[in-house]
Amino acid sequence: MNYFSTSFTLGILGGGQLGKMMLYETRKWDIKTHVLDPSNEAPCRIAADHFQQGNLMDFETVYNFGKKVDVLTFEIEGVNIEALEKLESEGIKVYPSAATLRNIQDKGIQKQFYKDHQIPTSPFKVYKDKYALNEAIVRKELHFPFVWKSCTGGYDGKGVSIIREAEEVIPLSEGACIAEKLIPFKNELAVIVARNPSGEVKTYPVVEMEFHPEANQVEYVICPARIDDAVAEKARALATKVSEAFKHVGLLAVEMFQTEDDEILVNEVAPRPHNSGHYSIEASYTNQFEQQIRAILDLPLGNTDSKVAGVMVNLVGAESHTGPVVYKNIEKILAMEGVTPHIYGKKETRPFRKMGHVTIVNKDLNKARKIAEEVKKTIKVVSK
Amino acid sequence: MNYFSTSFTLGILGGGQLGKMMLYETRKWDIKTHVLDPSNEAPCRIAADHFQQGNLMDFETVYNFGKKVDVLTFEIEGVNIEALEKLESEGIKVYPSAATLRNIQDKGIQKQFYKDHQIPTSPFKVYKDKYALNEAIVRKELHFPFVWKSCTGGYDGKGVSIIREAEEVIPLSEGACIAEKLIPFKNELAVIVARNPSGEVKTYPVVEMEFHPEANQVEYVICPARIDDAVAEKARALATKVSEAFKHVGLLAVEMFQTEDDEILVNEVAPRPHNSGHYSIEASYTNQFEQQIRAILDLPLGNTDSKVAGVMVNLVGAESHTGPVVYKNIEKILAMEGVTPHIYGKKETRPFRKMGHVTIVNKDLNKARKIAEEVKKTIKVVSK
Predict the structure, then answer these.
(1) Greater confidence, B160 or A202?
(2) What is the CATH number of the domain that holds B144?
(3) Which of A120, B75, B232, B361 sits at 20 to 30 Å (Cα–Cα) from A139?
(4) Cα separation of A28 and A40, whole Å?
(5) Is A111 a domain residue?
(6) Which of A57, A78, A94 corresponds to the end of one domain?
């Protein structure tokens, strides 16, 4: 198949920042794109050859959009799977496949998939609704503390809570959920696996999520993770196993816990480019978005090694600021060594809204980490 | 000034591959852009917020386009300078300035500028037309061989010829020209200088153009140049001097000769991102297009050092192929280590048309150079 400067068309469901960064790569290779997103102000609005506004969960919309493309992918999991299945049955290539997405989209099914495939994960129970969850608490089948996760719709920390007492159940949403054992862990790690339809597989180096000591929020994504080589090897091998179990095509971001005794447990996966791989744009030989394109188009996968160390900081809207966005002090961080901000293009900021990210690269990881701290202290996402 | 996700608008005259690569950076920072280009199929057609078709040499077109933007730049020298001057007088920021472009656009004026500013360059004479050139030959004021250059309109090797005998003058164009002494040189080098309106200046490492031993055509752009440190220092210092003499703002690519006795002579300059800086997308901490944006918006300049060594190969249309383009064996070069093709998006190939480039990066320059040779042997730009 000839993709470059031809009428071949790649369809992308979702037009947010991940899609936007993917479009840098389709532009670089002059691959024609169609993008579907519910918002007319989506970051992918420009740079796609054709943009369409529409509901990603609507069968007809997704089906009709997909009929006009040669290969269909998504940058968000919340898409209509039945439409993907019908498109596949009619010969459209959908990567990752509808079957893979079925095993991932619902977190209850995803956890059961790990169990069925002997993939280490924290012990859990699935509850069909909040009523069933409450009943299990009353019957003392479920003990505090536990991690509650909504089976669907979770994103960017939404749909996940640590429940320490009965009262904390009250504000949870009504739908199906899982309750997971709260595992004390040393590190939260992630590995991105790339796999193409021909079966070529490559993993990126292990990255580490460094948490704020008090706020318990991810502050920095660090590549490479500051862990033993043996642990890193184990994490990459496990991530590969997960990708193969899912028969996944494209990028799969595998989030994992490193327990106190150096066990690796799979937390959850995202079947697409991922926040934990943004560092790769500046640090890696092949960035995750180019790799995604290579994988879904069955091209040879690129080198996943890093040229330099990378640290990534998310740019989220400051608390108590809502309105037209201002990136305060951005010129100050541009004066720091090896600093690249990425601005997603959302015109309005809201508390904790993901507005962009900043990558800091350096030959010396410790220097990059120090500069990242300066970046975090300096730039503020506020409203006018 | 607040550039990021605001109504601030950057205007770009010219919508070719340089503009296209600049747009990756404006997208990364969500800076609003308007682009003007004569072709409705220009590579910048998408990814700009607003694209306008129009003649870059027409006063009214350029003036009216420029009135709607806050900062105006160009990615090609052939633009209407009078319009730039009028825009400047009305408060639009034009970078590089009209005055700088006046000293560069006409090669006769550019050479005289070097002479006036004690910038070493090969000896030359300016002739107001071909008649005057012929007269100088007849009067034996001008001796063979010499280098003929058209004062205007030269681009990608057009408008330059080595003249070894009287007959070779016949096919030359009629207009004003210069005749330069043919200087035997060891190396052709280039340095990109970035300078912002506040006067901050940075130079990129010296790159080397490696010529095909027989065809006398540039085959590889190599960074860093394989030359002595002292020569490299001298070249960077000279390039800085040239940029300052021009009071240049933005990127200035300074092409130079290293003579047999290690003198450095300025050949010519381009007041914009340049083919010799394409390696920087993959190899440098700050690529030349991001640097251009930083410079013209008076932001702090980024680190010009390289993360890794880089070699660049141009992708030009194969001889005797005209028509819809096919990048033959592109999947083979994608399997080679550290190889990134860039496809400019021209749908039709013609003999020697610049259709894209390929960058090869590696920690080891010699390895990158070897892989570049493989790339050159493998990929072919042909028609269907």
Answers:
(1) A202
(2) 3.30.1490.20
(3) A120
(4) 24
(5) no
(6) A94
A335 falls within a domain: yes
Residue A210 shares a structural domain with residue A344: yes
Judge: A327–B300 Cβ closer than 8 Å, yes or no. no
CA distance A350 to chain B (A): 14
pLDDT of residue A217: 73
Q: What is the CATH number of the domain that holds A204?
A: 3.30.470.20
Residue at token pair 């080198």: A303
Based on the fold, state whether residues B208 and B273 are members of the same structural domain. Answer: yes
Task: Read off the DSSP letter of residue A167.
Answer: G
Same domain? B129 vs B14: no
Residue A96, SS3 per DSSP? coil
Query: How large is the C-alpha radius of gyration of chain A?
Result: 21
B158 pLDDT more than 80: no
To test the contact with chain A by mutation, choose from B18, B343, B374 the residue with the greatest count of A C-beta atoms within 10 A, namely: B343
The model's pLDDT over A168-183, given as tens digits with 9 standing for 90+, comes to: 988 898 999 999 999 8
Q: How far is CA A285 from CA A308, A309, B327, B371, in A?
A: 9, 12, 22, 15
SS3 A30: coil
Written as six digits, the tokens of A39 are: 């918002």
**A293 to chain B nearest CA, in Å?**
12
Same domain? A226 vs A77: no
Annotated ligand binding at A149? The verdict is yes
Choose one of A163, A181, A199: the last residue of a domain.
A181
A177 with A237, same domain?
Answer: no
Query: Which positions in chain B touch A28 (Cβ < 8 Å)?
Result: 24, 340, 342-343
**Mean pLDDT of all residues in B208-224:** 86
B171 part of a folded domain = yes
Pick from B5, B308, B334: CB nearest A299:
B334
Q: Domain residues for B22?
A: 9-94
Q: pLDDT tens digits for B2-47?
A: 999 999 999 999 999 999 999 999 999 999 999 999 999 999 998 9
User: Smallest Cβ distance to A5: which of B5, B303, B347?
Assistant: B347
Do A315 and A173 share a structural domain? no
Q: Which residues contact A139 (CB under 8 A, 6 or more apart)?
A: none
B25 and B131 share one domain: no
Annotated binding residue at A268? yes
Strands A93-94 and A264-270: unpaired
Angle, alpha carbons B321-B325-B327 (nearest 5°): 100
Question: CB under 8 Å to B80, separation ≥6 — which residues?
Answer: B56, B57, B58, B59, B61, B62, B63
Q: In the predicted model, is pLDDT for residue A155 greater than 80?
A: no
Mean pLDDT of A244-253: 98
Burial A20-36 (b: 16+ CB within 10 A, else e): bbbbbbbbbbbbbbbbb
Same domain, B171 and B197: no
For B52-61, B108-117, B208-217, B266-275, which range has the lowest pLDDT when averaged over its residues? B208-217
* pLDDT on residue B215: 67
Residue of A144, A32, A191, B55 lying closest to A23 (CA atoms): A32
Q: Residue A224, CB half-sphere, CA atoms under 13 Å: how many?
A: 19
Helix (H, G, I), strand (E, B) or coil at A120: coil
Please state the domain count of chain A: 3
A284: pLDDT strictly greater than 70: yes
pLDDT value for B154: 66
